[in-house]
Amino acid sequence: MLRLLVPVLRTPSLELLSASGLYEVVRTESEHYWNWHFQLSLYVVPSDERPIVIPYHRCEGMIEATVHLLAPRAMLPLERLRFYVSGGSQGTAFFNTPYELLIRGPGQVELGVEGATEPLTEHAANHPLLVHLTLHSVGGAAPNTVRLELTPVSGVPMTWRL
Question: In what order do the strands lie in the sheet with 107-117?
Fold first, then answer.
């Protein structure tokens, strides 16, 4: 009976296939921060046939990094968070605007994520990096969380891979 009164809330299934990340140091007269670039390959399966909308302004990101050998890991919010679709399944399963991602069916999507943090120490570039992305879909029962455990790429500075 309660199920008739409360609409069924949906949450898509997200499978992380691959991921990589890098940062660039940005220093101007008024600002100094690290600009992060992540590339994720996800396989998305909607919970039913209805389209899913993920507004980017409802998404959040955090980076967990080692900043000093003797210090605990730092948790930093990703600010200025931006998303973009750079490829994926053929057809019309995915459509994005600068403001949202629309998912019309199952398939693979290549998702780019950019965000900024306060500057870390260069020590962070030599240690694993944890990235937490929270994607809130419209009408979703719960947010989808993507957790990336990235390790430094040997011989390639400031770059990590899954």
Answer: 74-77, 60-65, 129-135, 144-152, 159-161, 13-27, 32-45, 107-117, 79-88
